[in-house]
């Protein structure tokens, strides 16, 4: 990827975003607050956020599971798209990030639709399972990639037939082709890919993407 590539992809994103998404004060304030807090600027792009919202609407989602809240940008997109009475349960490992997200979500008027859980995903997920709150209609996994296999397994267990699961950042800029990378995030995605290939609980596909976030990609799975 060159600087010229990124400039072109960013311009194309902006071209479509201007027509199909437009400005959004709450989302723009969320990005600004996330940056001001010194947090990594790794939230989904506007077009990716709207894709998540459209997927929520496609399955008439009442319950959404998110693993990796960060500043709440994707959380807001999905919470807005919930069916009446719906809720996003979102897990964030860093308490300081969770507090920024809490403020952003409240400022967007969505505090009553979002339940933020603080802690390591693989520790929090069994607790969520024990609560018998009902299956999730959509899960969005956007946390550390080394633990993707575990996150995905829990997402399937907490889903119903027809639920969707989105796993972000799976291409690692092409590094997933390297069996000798020695990078935990790459190894996590490679392990996930291998287990997904024989996982009869779901049907899945992988989509490579380019845009303002650079070269990336996601996996979309439907629970059988």
What's the level 1 CATH class? Alpha Beta
- Give the DSSP E fraction (strand runs of 2 or more residues): 15-25%
Helix content: 40-55%
Number of strands: 7
Distance between the termini: 37 Å
Oligomer: single chain
Radius of gyration: 17 Å
Compute the number of structural domains: 1
Instruction: Give the integer mean of the pLDDT values.
Output: 96
Look at the structure and name the CATH superfamily. Answer: Vaccinia Virus protein VP39
Bulk shape: globular
Order of helices and strands: HHHEHEHEHEHEHEE
Q: Strand arrangement, largest sheet?
A: 3-2-1-4-5-7-6
Largest sheet, if any?
7 strands, mixed
Short structural description:
With 224 residues, the protein is of the alpha/beta class. 43% of the residues lie in helices and 23% in strands.
Any overview of this molecule?
This protein has helices spanning 3-20, 25-36, 46-58, 73-80, 95-107, 121-130, 148-157, 184-196, and strands spanning 63-67, 87-92, 114-118, 136-141, 159-168, 202-211, 214-223. With 224 residues, it is an alpha/beta fold. It has one domain (3-223): Rossmann fold. Strand 4, helix 7 and strand 5 (159-168) form a beta-alpha-beta unit. Helix 2 (25-36) packs antiparallel against helix 5, helix 3 (46-58) packs parallel to helix 4 and helix 6 packs parallel to helix 7 (148-157). The longest helix is centred in the N-terminal third of the chain and has 18 residues, at 3-20. The model has no long low-confidence stretch (mean pLDDT 96).
């Amino acid at each position: 990827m060159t600087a010229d590539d990124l400039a072109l992809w960013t311009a194309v994103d902006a071209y479509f975003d201007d027509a199909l998404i437009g400005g959004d004060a709450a989302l723009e304030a969320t990005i600004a607050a996330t940056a001001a807090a010194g947090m990594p600027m790794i939230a989904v792009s506007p077009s990716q956020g709207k894709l998540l919202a459209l997927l929520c609407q496609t399955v008439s989602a009442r319950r959404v599971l998110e693993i990796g809240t960060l500043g709440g940008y994707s959380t807001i997109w999905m919470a807005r798209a919930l069916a009446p009475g719906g809720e996003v349960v979102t897990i964030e490992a860093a308490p300081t990030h969770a507090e920024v997200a809490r403020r952003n979500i409240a400022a967007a008027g969505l505090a009553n639709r979002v339940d933020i859980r603080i802690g390591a995903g693989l520790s929090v997920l069994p607790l969520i399972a024990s609560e018998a709150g009902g299956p999730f209609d959509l899960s969005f996994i956007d946390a550390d990639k080394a633990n993707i296999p575990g996150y995905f397994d829990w997402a399937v267990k907490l889903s119903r037939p027809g639920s969707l699961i989105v796993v972000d950042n799976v291409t690692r800029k092409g590094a997933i082709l390297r069996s000798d990378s020695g990078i935990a995030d790459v190894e996590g995605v490679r392990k996930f890919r291998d287990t997904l290939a024989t996982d009869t609980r779901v049907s899945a596909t992988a989509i490579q993407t380019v845009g303002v976030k650079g070269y990336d990609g996601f996996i979309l799975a439907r629970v059988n």
